Amino acid sequence: MSLQTWKKIQKIFPFIGLVIVMILFSFMCGDKLWAKRNLINIVNNTIPLAIGASGMVFVASQGSTDMSMGSLLAVAGTLGGIASLQYGVIGFVVVSVGVGIFFGLVMGILLAYFKVNSLMITLAMLIALRAVVSYITNGQALLLDYNIIAMNKLSTKLPIIIIILALMWYLFSYTKIGFFSRCIGENEEVGRFSGINVKKYKILAFMLSGAMAGVAGILAVIKIGGVSPTIGNFFELQVMTAMFVGGIPIAGGAESKFYKVISGSFILVILQNGLTIARVGSEISELIQGVILILVVYLNIYIECKFTEAQMNTKEEIN
After folding, report:
1. Rounded to a whole number, what is the distance in angstroms from the first to the last CA of the chain?
2. Tens digit of pLDDT for each residue in 135-156?
3. Contact status, residue 204 vs residue 59, Cβ threshold 8 Å
4. pLDDT value of residue 318
5. Could you please report the per-residue DSSP string of 33-52?
6. What is the pLDDT of residues 57-105, one digit of tens each?
């Protein structure tokens, strides 16, 4: 196939996956999948994934890894929830997002200036922050004020979430932070010699990821109506799965596109939702999700290799 054909396949691959999942579970689940209550449930479950991925994509596009998002969500949500008891909704939001940005800054500095591998930094932070949450909560759940719980209405949070996602899309697609993050993912050394302040943009990427972890923490807390020591468990794995299912390259680079974050989030949620409605056991459900993730990653790599091969053939023909 020609270069243009492979390029088109790369662009529409996430949407093909979304359509296949929707058609498959339409047959398996019938009208239950499209029932109003279930559609609302799908949107509610997609929102935190999309928010988390909209921040993590800056890190992933640079070829780095952020394993700390679930624990950072928990710390941000916990400290924000405690702050809300005295300072209300404003304190809740400011503290949650502020805590996320602060720890994102710390991880970014460790990565950029001390050359510590991103996987090691974020894995260590995952363990440490989870211990902090357990210490703060003393292993007990904490109920919050009704005004905080009342925020968990789709009509209230959906417009705000759309604005946040639109802002993150703009930052990733049309500003230096997004463009330079993709350049770093393609080739960090070339980016450095081209004049990109690599350290600065690595730090900014982790700060944005941390900020979205804080927003996800807000969503998690208002959903359960309080703070729990287990809040956000495995959230980072869900976010990473959504990104890779959507077609974000594992090594980052130019093919990291924001629409893949959104489509991947919907694919994963519809897949999980459909398996639940179809009454598939949890063990089999996890197995199916794992197999699909491996298949999708393989197809992404295959398409990328074919695209690169087509590019080389086109250059040879021109020469």
Report:
1. 20
2. 998 888 888 877 788 888 898 8
3. no
4. 64
5. TTSHHHHHHHHHHHHHHHHH
6. 999 999 999 999 999 999 999 999 999 989 989 999 999 999 999 999 9
Number of separate domains in the chain: 1
Burial 228-259 (b: 16+ CB within 10 A, else e): bbebbeebbebbbbbbbbbbbbeebbebbbbe
Distance CA 244, CA 117 (A): 21
**Residues near 298 by Cβ (< 8 Å), separated by ≥ 6?**
none
pLDDT confidence of residue 298? 80
CATH number at residue 221: 1.10.3470
Beta strands in the chain (DSSP E): 142-143, 226-227
Which amino acid appears at position 12 of this protein? I
85 residue type, one letter: L
32: DSSP letter: G
Q: How far apart are CA 48 and CA 130, in angstroms?
A: 19
The pLDDT tens digits of the residues spanning 179-201 come to: 999 999 999 999 999 999 999 99
Classify strands 142-143 and 226-227 as parallel, antiparallel or unpaired.
Answer: antiparallel
- The pLDDT value given to residue 279: 86
pLDDT at 281: 84
Contacts of 137 by beta carbon, 8 Å cutoff, 6+ apart: 78, 227, 228, 229
Amino acid 199: pLDDT: 96
Q: What is the distance between the alpha carbons of residues 42 and 33, in angstroms, rounded to a whole number?
A: 9
Domain with 218 in it: 3-318
Give, for 81, the enclosing helix (H) or strand (E).
helix 69-114
**Unique residue bearing structure tokens 């890779």:** 244
φ/ψ of residue 227, rounded to 5 = -115, 135
